Amino acid sequence: MSEADGQGRRAFVTLVTNADYAMGATALVHSIERSGTTAEIVILHTGGVAGESLAPLAARGCRLIPVQHLPLSEGFNSRHSRGAIHAGQPFTKGRKPLFHTPLDNFCKLRLWELTEYERCLFIDADALVLKTIDRLFDYPEFSAAPNVYEGLVDFQRLNSGVFVARPSHATFAAMLERLDQANVTWPRTDQSFLQAFFPDWHGLPVYMNMLQYVWFALPDLWHWPSIGVLHFQYEKPWERDHPKVEQLQPLIDLWHAFYQNRDIPDIASLPGPQEPRR
Question: What DSSP state is assigned to residue 110?
Answer without folding.
Answer: G
